[in-house]
Amino acid sequence: MNRFALFALPLLAVALAGCSSTGTAPVVQAPVAAAPVVVQPVMPSSAQTVQQARLTTSVSSGFVDPAALALMTAKDSSEANSAQFYALQFGRPGAPRQWAGDKGTTGSVAVGPYVKVNQIDCRDFTHTVKINGADYVKKGTACREQNGNWNVVQGAA
Fold first, then answer.
1. How far apart are the C-alpha atoms of 72 and 124, rounded to whole Å?
2. Which of 75, 103, 110, 150 is the most buried (most CB within 10 A)?
3. Is 146 left (phi over 0), alpha (psi -120 to 50) or beta?
4. pTM for the complete prediction?
5. Cα(144)–Cα(31) distance, integer angstroms
6. Phi/psi at 85 (nearest 5 deg)?
7. How far apart are CA 108 and CA 84, in angstroms?
C-alpha cells in the first residue's frame, strides 16, 4: 500500500461511520439565519476631505490683495491656493509657506495659532504676493467650516 492509501483509508472509515442506510426518516437541514446586512453611509476619508477642501479654498475669495489677484496668472493662483490651504491647515505659527508662480511671481503665507471661535478653528493669516518687484499684502482671519473649507471671515488690505 502506498502512503496515500494508508492516510486516506482511516479518514474514509471515520466519515462513513456516521452514515446509516437503515434510517427511515429523511434528514432535513434547519434553516440558517443570515446575519443582518448593515449599510453604512459612505463617508469620505480624512484624506478625501482634505483634498476637497484644498480644491475649494480659493485665493480669489479674500485671501490675496485684489490688485495682485488682477495681475496673477492661472499658475500663480494655483500655487497661491495650495500654499494658502496648507499654511492654514498644517502650518506652524511664524513659519511662512513659500510659493512660486510664473515669470518671477512669488508669495508667502504666514499663519498665527489656532483659535476656537464658537467651536470653529480660526487662524489669522498674512498672504504676501510679489509681482514685478511690488509687494501686495493681505491680512485677515480665516475659519475652517465643518466640511473642511477655509473662508475669510475678516480681512484688511
1. 23
2. 150
3. alpha
4. 0.63
5. 53
6. -65, -50
7. 8
